[in-house]
Design goal:
Structural class: alpha/beta
Helix content: 40-55%
Order of helices and strands: HEEHEEHEHHEHHEEHHHHEEEE
Shape: elongated
Distance between the termini: 90 Å
Strand content: 15-25%
Strand order of the largest sheet: 6-7-8-12-9-10-11
Largest sheet: 7 strands, antiparallel
Number of helices: 11
Number of strands: 12
Radius of gyration: 26 Å
Length: 356
Amino acid sequence: MDKNCFLKRVREIRLTKKRTKKRIKRKYAKFNGIRRQVSQHYLPTDWIRAPEVFSLAKEFAPTVVKFLTALRKKCLEQKLSINIDFRATNKLFPEATLLLYAEIDRILSIAQTIKPITCVPPQNHKIKQVFKQIGLFDLTSDQIDVLPVDNDVIYWQSHKGLTQSGDHIAPFITKVAKSVFGESPTAEDMDVLWRPFTEVINNTTDHAYEADRGDGFEHSNTARWWMFTHLRNKLLTVGVCDLGMGYWRTHRKYIGEEFISSISSSILGRNRDCKAIQIAMQYGVSGTDQGGRGKGSRCALSLLDSRPNGSILTIVSNTGLVRYKQTNQGNAPKIEHSVLDADILGTIVYWNIPVS
């Protein structure tokens, strides 16, 4: 027998002994009722590819919603550890990115696996900076080596909360007030900015989570609202997201079908979610029996009245989108509406306000 054949035979014998030893250990464990502890690295895993564009525009919303639905199902129903592949993602819009952030945070708070989500970072360097800046990689505990430096990235901030407390956003509101009213804003000046944002947060904690959102999973136990803020070049951007039951189901409970039917002719569009948003803007009703409440949606719109032309309020709830544009200060804003062809199972209230 030559040397090569001899070495090959030795390797085969060693491999056979190793396999036999493992087989004996498995049989021994089975016979004695011993269950092998499964390491985190051996948890069932799966991959899911993220959309190239995160937007709630009509042509992109179905793809984004389909992705988020699959992510929830794999993590919460199938109890898999998911690798989200963001390598192809090349464009982000704030409303859809806020929804992504909220959905991932909610999944992580209620999932039963050890590390439910891992991110494969985007190849687009700008997108990678944004995810780092808003804390998406922090949510998933992924150590991604990137430093946000671009001017259109570093001013974005993310916030979240479980209660009505506005402490999370107080420093940002103060900064905005100084930009708008000068270095010494009065209490009335602060109230102009403070009330619309905090009333929307109050609405989420008072009403949005009174019922299941419709996906069959429990609510987050760590946050009930998520917010993005941005102030740059005299343009204020604020978005608030909740993953609750939406405007339509809230109005059916507190306003009533008869009243809704009586005013439907004055509301634009046929989509029930679009109608519910417009009703909220005109007829805020409180379900808390507290004086001064029930004004959250109208407060959101009031911010446009006091700001220059070009101010925009966008509200997305379930399948409906309604946009209010201030084109002539002092007059009622222009109203646009559209249907998403997908259900985001939540609500996003989003302002773009010039502050010069």
